Amino acid sequence: MRTIILNSSHFVGDNRLEFRFNPSNDKFETGDCIALQSASIYNQFYNISSKHVNNYVDITWNAFQTETRRCWIPDGFYKVSEISLFIQAWLVRQKWYTINEDESINEYIEFQSNQMTYNTQINIFALPVASNINSESVTDLSGNIIYLPVGCGWNFPTSIQNSQCPQITFNEKFGRLFGYEALSTPKGTTDFSIFSTRTPIYQYTQSIVCGINMCDNNYNLQAGIIHSIPLDVPYQELIIDQPRRLEWHRIIQGSYNFLVLTLYDQNFDWLTIADKDVTFSFLIKGADE
To answer: Do the Cβ atoms of 256 and 24 come closer than 8 Å?
Structure first.
C-alpha cells in the first residue's frame, strides 16, 4: 500500500493538482484501487461573484425624477448584514439618501436577518414628500427637518406621484443566497417589508467534489469522481475531512505519468482555489492487498 500526499506545491491551475510518479511512468493493473485518506482546505469560497452571475442588483430611485442604476458588488463572501451595508454605502455614493438636522443620514433600503424566523427581510422606506418640487428640505410627521444632499441632482417626490419608495431588482442567483426567488420590489408610498420565501443558504458552494484522472465513475456525469467534502465550517475556517471508512475506487488499468486531482463544486463547476494551503492524502493498494 502506498501513500500519496498533494499540497500547495502540486497546483498547476486554479483547481488542479498534479503528482508526478517516480519513475515517471507508473503501471497499474486490474484491481488496483485508490481512496482519499484525508483532506484539509480552508473554506474560502465566495458566495457572490461574477462567476456565479449574482454580483449585481438594480436600484430604481423614485424621487420626483425616476432613475435606475446598476450596483455592482465585488467578488466576496457576504452575510445579510454585510450586503446591506454595501448597498447602503453604494446609495450614499450615488447621493441617494437624505440628511437630518443632526447631520445623520437616512437610508431607504435595508437587508435584515430575522433570527427568530430564520429568514431574511428587505425593508423599503418611503422618501419624504414635498409640497413644492423646488423644496430643499421637508418636515416629516414627527416635526424633523430633512434635507437633500448638496449636488444630489434630484428633488423630493410630491404627493401627486404614485411611488416614493425606491425599488430593488435582482436575479434568482442572487436571491437564492438570502431566501428569495428573482425579485423586483413593487412601487409604494409607505414603508414596507418583503420576507424571504425559502430558507437562505448564504454559502453558494456546498461541497468540494474530488475527481481523479485514473478513475472512472459511471454513475456521475463528470468522470473520475471519488469523494465529496462537505463545507461544514464557517467561511475562512479550516475544513478537515477524514472519512470514517475508506472508499476504495478501482483504477483504470494502464500506465500514468501523473495523478491529477481536480476540484469541483456540487454542480461540477470548477472551483477557484485562492488559498492553496491544502493537503490531500491518498492511499493506493494493489489487487493482492
So the answer is: no
Strand pairing category for 192-195 and 183-184: unpaired
Sheet containing 145-147: give its strands across: 105-106, 98-100, 145-147, 137-139
Which regions of 43-166 does DSSP assign to beta strands (E)? 56-62, 66-72, 98-100, 105-106, 109-114, 119-124, 137-139, 145-147
Omega of the bond prior to 23 within 30 degrees of 0, cis? yes
Which residue segments constitute the domains of the chain, with CATH numbers given?
Answer: 2-45+205-285 (2.60.120), 56-195 (no CATH)
Q: Report pLDDT digits (tens) over 200-241.
A: 988 889 999 999 999 987 666 677 999 999 999 999 999 999
| Cα–Cα dist 79/50, whole Å | 17
User: Residue 66, by phi and psi: left (phi above 0), alpha (psi -120 to 50) or beta?
Assistant: beta
User: pTM of the prediction?
Assistant: 0.85
Any bridge partners for residue 42, and if so which? 238
Neighbours of 33 (CB within 10 A): 19
